[in-house]
Design a protein that fits this description.
The chain is α+β, with helices and mostly antiparallel strands. It has helices spanning 14-25, 55-65, 82-91, 99-105, 108-117, 163-177, 180-183, 245-262, 310-318, 352-356, 394-406, and strands at residues 3-8, 28-33, 48-49, 73-76, 125-129, 144-148, 158-160, 192-197, 202-211, 214-222, 236-239, 267-276, 279-286, 299-301, 307-309, 327-328, 332-338, 344-350, 361-366, 373-374, 385-391, 409-413. 43% of the residues are buried.
Length: 422
């Protein structure tokens, strides 16, 4: 049986989606994840335990555990496994990204250097070590944005409009980068922060795949909610884009050029860009697909207009099948990543059935667990859940997402703080 190696964190939402797609395609999925290697297969899925921060040991773990013919392909889900995916593709003699390109794609400083060298629009930027005296940190111009070099999902990204705000944000991000869930990643990129000029404009996301360095685009997502700061919590994605045809073409060309600048050649890409009167600013090109459950908003059609998921197409691409006839579906679609309104303990939600009854709504998934502590951006890394909509037009998709969200009422209690009475 054809096998594909999927690298993902233990909490990755997409493992199940890839599993369903693999079953339908007749492909065996072998998972490599950052789980404990001292427990004997705690999830009963035959996954290979590894440590994404130690690529040498992880490559050895996979190649030692692998039995029989090599995999037909390697797919990384999430930013952290992308470098390991490149290493393993090379070890098995498979198509993949060069290791240095994968490394550059998840390093915001390296990406900025590559984009600027390729002549792409790039904001002025500087990098500071987290050990820097915060009072000595300066921006080239204001407003500015300060962000970690390697965290994703807008985590730790803060707009600042002056020196006092920059110093306060630097303290805040430094504290975040020392948090246990970040420190455990043992990533040297977390020892630095990037300060760059704020780029105004509308923001978009582009989903696609590279084959021999050629970009095939599956979706351009509009982000209709303003992302002006001070934090940059993404909420609504809608496709197809309502941007002018020329703007869409310019975005695709810029993302393709950015991928070439990084040296990426093979596999999924998820790109973010901003567009203003000067043109297209590529913010990032990640060597992995869109994260979490959001992939359900990418609707594709294969030969005979058969419905396909993003995971279907990426698996076919990984095993070398042609995807030339895969096209975006005719109907518009979208997702809302339900934002966390405030810090507190999640007690429950009402109105889910009313939200599901909104015309066009296909599903409402509440992923927050009862009694869990909710932490909003910039420190947080999750959402309350997801709303999925399909409709005839992008405008109706956006309307349905907002209408469904308005039906939901989340009960969030204030976090109890223990007081030392000594």
């Amino acid at each position: 049986m054809t096998r594909v190696l999927l690298l993902s964190t233990t909490t990755g939402y997409q493992i199940r989606s890839f599993g369903e797609a693999a079953g339908a395609l007749g492909v065996r999925l072998v998972i490599g994840s950052d789980r404990c290697d001292r427990l004997e297969d705690p999830w009963w899925d035959g996954a290979i335990p590894m440590r994404f921060h130690d690529t040498d040991a992880s490559v050895d773990a996979v190649t030692t555990a692998w039995q029989g013919p090599p995999p037909s392909g390697v797919i990384a889900v999430g930013d952290r496994p992308t470098v390991l995916a490149a290493r393993l593709a090379a070890a098995f003699g498979l198509p993949g990204n060069p290791v240095d390109a994968a490394e550059a794609s998840r390093d915001k400083q390296a990406s900025r250097r590559a984009f600027a060298a390729a002549g792409l629009l790039t904001p002025p930027w500087q990098v500071f070590p987290t050990t820097q005296d915060p009072s000595a940190v300066r921006a080239i111009e204001y407003p500015a944005v300060i962000k970690p070099l390697a965290l994703s999902g807008s985590r730790g990204v803060i707009r600042v409009d002056g020196e006092d705000a920059l110093v306060a944000a630097f303290h805040r991000i430094r504290h975040l980068l020392r948090a246990p869930d970040v420190a455990i990643q043992r990533d040297g990129l977390h020892d630095f922060v990037l300060v760059e000029s704020y780029v105004p404009g509308r923001e978009y996301a582009i989903e696609g795949v590279l084959s021999g360095g050629t970009l095939t685009v599956f979706a351009i997502f509009d982000k209709p909610d303003p992302l002006d700061g001070p934090f940059f919590e993404e909420t609504i994605y809608v496709t197809p884009s309502r941007a002018a045809t020329g703007v869409q073409r310019a975005m695709i060309d810029a993302v393709a050029a950015a991928a070439r600048a990084l040296g990426l050649t093979h596999g999924p890409v998820h790109a973010e860009c901003r567009v203003n009167e000067r043109g297209v600013y590529v913010l990032e090109v990640a060597a992995r697909p869109i994260g979490g459950l959001c992939s359900r908003a990418v609707r594709l059609e294969g030969p005979g207009r058969i419905a396909m998921t993003l995971e279907d197409v990426l698996l076919r691409h990984a095993i070398g099948e042609g995807i030339d006839q895969c096209r975006p579906a005719a109907r518009a679609s979208g997702v809302m990543m339900i934002p966390i309104p405030r810090r507190g303990v999640f007690r429950g939600v009402t109105g889910v059935d009313r939200a599901r009854d909104v015309p066009g709504v296909e599903d409402v998934r509440i992923t927050a667990k009862p009694d869990a502590l909710l932490v909003p951006l910039p420190e947080g890394r999750s959402y309350l859940g997801f709303i999925f909509v399909s409709a005839e037009t992008p405008a109706r998709v956006e309307e349905a997402l907002r209408e469904a969200h308005a039906q939901l009422n989340f009960v969030i209690e204030r976090e109890l703080m223990l007081v030392d009475e000594k």
